[in-house]
Amino acid sequence: MKRYFFITLLFTLILQSCSSSTENIEDDVDDTPDTPVTITKPNILLVIADDVSKDAIPNYTEGSIKANMPNLQGLMSSGITFDNAWAYSVCSPTRASIITGKYGINNGVIEVNDEISSSETILQKYISDNTNNAYATAIFGKWHISNDTNDAENMGVNHFAGISKGGVQDYYSWPLIENGISTTNTTYMTTKLTDLAIDWKNAQTKPWFLWMGYTAPHTPFHLAPTDLHSQGNLPTDDASIDANPLPYYLSALEALDSEMGRLINSMSDEEKANTVIIFIGDNGTPNQVAQSPYSRRTVKGTLYQGGINVPMAVSGVGVNRMGVRESTLINSTDLYTTIANIAGVSSASIHNSQSFYDLLTDENATKRDYVYSEKEDAYTIRNATYKYIRFDDGTEELYNLSSDAYENSNLIGTTLSSDASAAKTALITEANRIRS
Predict the structure, then answer these.
(1) Does the pLDDT of residue 297 top 80, yes or no?
(2) Which of 370, 393, 410 is the last residue before a domain boundary?
(3) Please, are residues 177 and 163 in contact by the beta-carbon 8 Å criterion?
(4) By its UniProt entry, which InterPro entries does this protein fall under (predicted)?
(5) Last residue of a domain, which of 370, 393, 416?
(6) If we measure between CA atoms, which residue out of 263, 245, 243 comes closest to residue 255?
(7) pLDDT tens across 75-130, in order?
(8) Phi/psi zone of residue 91: left (φ > 0), alpha (ψ -120 to 50 degrees), beta?
(9) Is residue 357 a contact partner of residue 342, using CB atoms and an 8 Å limit?
(10) In 50-201, at which residue ranges do the beta strands (DSSP E only) sit?
(11) What is the pTM of this model?
(12) pLDDT at 39
């Protein structure tokens, strides 16, 4: 192109010098850039916060004492805050639902310590298979859907570093698994996982999908390093011997936000501009630190709203709806197809996963009619208004979430309105379809 430019310019100058006319002659010069601009696939950062419901998270009305999380608030103000995202009541089935796009009844992971089948096509492999291996993939932090420390990489993740179990005994001395080998690490866990993620990210030469499974603020409620939180000086480093564990829990949640911010800020401006970030909690708040309107009986481990209605925000490249709230029903399974769409796969529905990719730009995009969750002894399903819970012993509960958002008045046993009766029938029919 440059050679063509100079030859054209020289030819024009010769013509000008040989002409007796004083009329200006315009050069017909191609000013197209020499090197075509390459549009690369977006990077994808998925941050899963452990044991985090809406009561301690900014930008939600639940709870009165909020963690200081400026980085998450920045994502919310530049993207979408989801009000009705449903996960599972404990961590393993939520993580399995995201990575398989299937409900627990279909992937075999319904409770803690259930193990995923090695025959599942996990999200990272699905993306690789359908994009000609366009992405580098990694999981850092909590795996907890099988006991084999090599399963993540055997199933298609390029790199794994973290823990295979649900938690650790000490966030300052914990078993780090990397390259299939476990060693004791004494760096605060949230910080070390972020260090590893940054190092891995910086070494990549193609678009990346980084699954960041932070473990804290899961119990034990240990005080995070002082420079990572705003809870100040507390009586001890261990909340187990303090009457009020909430500040310790908040310190870990604020440390998560600080380190997530460090991870984001480690990107160049160009890299950051080409990255989509998804933040989601994996299940409800532990009962020791639950805040009103939730109670100890409606949080982690239960199918009530405080146990399964988790915070979620999406921001970054391709998210054109800025600072908005979205009331659409979202299932944790839906991240499978949505993330695949971000990576360039066109499928709108896979297994039990329905993409909400179009919602990132269009508030009128197709939306779910129902969301579903389950435990070993019960299941629950809801539509835009009503929520139904059925236990294995035959006990039923029905709530109008529009007028009773925190499930104080079970409608079963009362005279149901025609609307409530029709909704109950529809919910049971859909649940039976899902579970058949």
Answers:
(1) yes
(2) 370
(3) yes
(4) Alkaline_phosphatase_core_sf (IPR017850), Sulfatase (IPR050738), Sulfatase_CS (IPR024607), Sulfatase_N (IPR000917)
(5) 370
(6) 263
(7) 999 999 999 999 999 999 999 999 999 999 999 999 998 999 999 999 999 999 99
(8) alpha
(9) yes
(10) 79-86, 136-142, 159-163, 174-178, 181-185
(11) 0.90
(12) 52
Question: Phi/psi of residue 432, each to 5°?
Answer: -65, -35
**152 and 268 co-located in one domain:** yes
Strand-pair category, 309-316 with 79-86: antiparallel
Per the structure block, which two tokens stand in for 420? 């409530």
* Structure token pair of residue 381: 């399903």
The pLDDT score that the predictor gives to residue 27 is 33
Instruction: Look at the block and give the residue holding tokens 């009000």.
Output: 83
Mean pLDDT of the chain: 91
Q: Do 372 and 351 touch, CB atoms closer than 8 A?
A: no
Give the pLDDT confidence of 375-414 residue by residue, as tens digits. Answer: 999 999 999 999 999 999 999 999 999 999 999 999 999 9
- Of residues 408, 419, 415, 412, the one with CA closest to residue 398: 412
126 in the same domain as 89: yes
Helix H or strand E segment including 281: strand 275-281
Cα 236 to chain centroid distance, Å, stands at: 32
Domains: count for the chain: 2
In total, the chain counts a number of residues equal to 436
